[in-house]
Amino acid sequence: MLSTIADYTRLTKDMGKSLTQVAKQPDVSRETDYFLSHIGNVKTIDDFLKDYRLYSYAMKAYGLSDMTYAKAFMRKVLTEGIANKNTFANKLTDTRYREFAAAFNFAALGSNATKTTQATTGTATQYVRQTMEQKAGDQNEGLRLALYFTRKASTITTAYQVLADKALTQVVQTALGLPSTISAADIDAQAKMITNRVKLTDFQDPAKVTKFVQRFAAMWDATQAQSDNSTNPALVLIGGASTSAGMDIDMLSKLQSIRFGK
Known about the structure:
The chain is mostly helical and 262 residues long. It has 17 helices and no strands. It is globular, with a radius of gyration of 20 Å. About 8% of the residues have low confidence. This is DUF1217 domain-containing protein. Pfam families: DUF1217.
């Protein structure tokens, strides 16, 4: 089994090629063709919600598959839109709903909401990316998290955005060597802990994002390897030398003491 870093490097070395390979898979291609050929015919929110195939495709594209059943909830998201801070989507902590309402902006565009680039090819691109991450997660949950963080990193401007997203929280906590139990702490204390250790503006730099993801992957694989006596390939890649499972604990301690980006 390849390490998380090896898997991540293989997929991201040529992301365009990796996404094209996923897009060409028969099930993905079939659903994307249906979506692109039918979404333009949708004129109202009712039309959208009634076509389960279109609606569920869009929900998956924006990472909301687990909320596909909640049509009344999503109707409110779409009906109110994102025009001002008091709309339903803008009041929700989870930014995925704002992204969805922006992509299918019936509130502002009416019957033309499904004709925008964001609603059509933009959504299809999102769907392919989500599918790649999901399939990666079927084999390696750490890889799914790494790919997700890479996609979302440039949108992070505050620690509270991290804490509002379970996947981002898990990546950051793991990379910084923070126990998941700190999630029970005061939210402001958690935010301060993150900003004390990470310069969030670094996430606008792809090279620094890659470095952070490699750190996460090393910590993730080291944690997974603690239960056996095998060599940890992630730490070999990061540290440049072989290390035993017993050495992993020492490496974890060292990684925990390093402030990222400093």
